[in-house]
Amino acid sequence: MPERRGGRRLLAIMKRIKHNDLTHYFIREHSTLPAAYLASCEKFFKELSSKQQATSTKQQAASLQELDPTIDWNKLIDTLKT
After folding, report:
1. Taking the CA of residue 58 as centre, how many other CA atoms within 13 Å lie in the half-sphere pointing to its CB?
2. pTM confidence score
3. Which residues span the domain enclosing 37?
4. Among 4, 30, 42, 59, which is least packed by CB within 10 angstroms?
5. At 10, is the pLDDT very low, low, confident or very high (cuts 50, 70, 90)?
6. How many structural domains does the chain have?
């Protein structure tokens, strides 16, 4: 039964969570959040993780030694600084 104060009933109304809003995931107890919201957040984090792993497998730029191992790159850089 809802609590009464001053002749008015106080209802425990949960504020609606906006779509794609992760704020509540981090600041509220997960036990108080709707199951569908938690599932949506977990799905997003899994997708984000898989995308990050996919981009990390891309080939990186070659190091200076890989460009030409016959050049002493440290010496060249030092002479360019002076």
Report:
1. 7
2. 0.49
3. 18-57
4. 59
5. very low
6. 1
